[in-house]
Amino acid sequence: MSGPRRWSLSRRLGLWLALSVAALWLAAATVAGLVLRQEIDEVFDSALQEVAQRVLPLAYSELLSREDGAGAQHMAPVGPHREYITYVVRDAEGRVLLQSSDAEQMAIPAGLAPGFHTTARLRTYTEAAVRGTIVVTAAEELSHRAAAVQRAAMALMWPLVALVPIALTGVWLTLRLTLKPVLAFRYAIAERGRGNLAPVPEQGLPEEMAPVAGAVNALLERLRGALEAERGFAANSAHELRTPIAAALAQTQRLMAELPEGPEQERARTIAGALRRLSRLSEKLLQLAKAEGAGLLAEAPAPLAPVLHHVIADLDRQSARAAGIEMTIAADGGLVSDLDPDAFAVLARNLIENALKHGTPDTPIHVCLAADRLEVSNHGPVVPADRLALLLRPFERGPTGADGSGLGLAIAAAICRGAGLTLEIASPIPGGADGFSAVVRFPGQARS
């Protein structure tokens, strides 16, 4: 199962800032809409009152100039238009004396007291004159006011449609520029580990991140000190053991030459064999110390095929079994890597020596150097699955009676860990019935 999904600080900040801006704009638009509605009501109420008060003296003059018995008069419109405010003039008995062109469609109710009134669909204002004998009522549909408020509110809301993407873009750019030193700090930390425990740079970091950088550098310093102490102990111990072991082996060989054939010489041979194994063990400890060191990378990539040729030639001089090595190198010249050539030599030598020691006699050892990997395989007993992963630990050995220290694969694994490589071991050989294979993968290497 994969771990919990990581969340992005910049994405979360950008989203929350954009949502906050949108929410504040919505709140401001809502408050502005409420204030605008109140102001619109006051303006339209004032217009109703103004119309009624303007019509009243005109209606009185019009009525005085009429002949007796004249019916209700409709005021003709000046031109084609919609009347948002209409009016009607009535007498004391409620008869219509004068009205605007759209008053009949409004169905303005009669008998309204002077002042403002609101019905189910109208807002009205009534004014009386001449002791209540002339009554003027101006009216407006409530739907007109609602439409005006809606249009004003939409005029406030439409900018939000453009504001949200603009705000998101602006916040994203701001966060990207602001967090650029933090991202550089992150990449600097990610680069540590491939033999590089140097302090991460603290320049340009914001004040909140400076303590984090200091803590990381302090941790790297303590880690480097612990690794150097461990490697120094292993290297010094192996180095100091080499000279007395060589001296003891020389004295034992001299003793073997001086002793006559018999039990004493046999014991001397046993001691010489034990000293040789101890010498090889000290050599492996020196290699392990180098494998766990920080100098596993070269300054520039270099081809590794010549190094592999040298390793196999050196093994061929030391062991007749090495004559069975079948080496294959890619047609393009093989691998080009920034792995230190000495470290690659130790890596390849330990994998090949492991195959020589534990492979079935009189069967070939296959070594292949491709553009992105090194493969070493041999025939032999199958390693049980529960034992396979343990072989990468120091002093762990598989089901074999061959002489060895159990450090070869551990040294190879340590080099791969320190150089950022991947070591894959399998038994039996993929596609085969027996044997053991080790594949070192070099991700992202340059091709020659």
Automatic annotation (TrEMBL):
It is a multi-pass membrane protein. Its main location: membrane. It comes from Xanthobacter autotrophicus (strain ATCC BAA-1158 / Py2). GO terms for cellular component: plasma membrane. It comes from the Bacteria. Keywords: ATP-binding, Kinase, Membrane, Nucleotide-binding, Phosphoprotein, Plasmid, Transferase, Transmembrane, Transmembrane helix, Two-component regulatory system. It holds the Pfam family HATPase_c. The chain crosses the membrane at residues 155-175. Its EC number is 2.7.13.3. Residues 236-446 form the Histidine kinase domain. SMART domains: HAMP, HATPase_c, HisKA. It catalyses: ATP + protein L-histidine = ADP + protein N-phospho-L-histidine. This is histidine kinase.
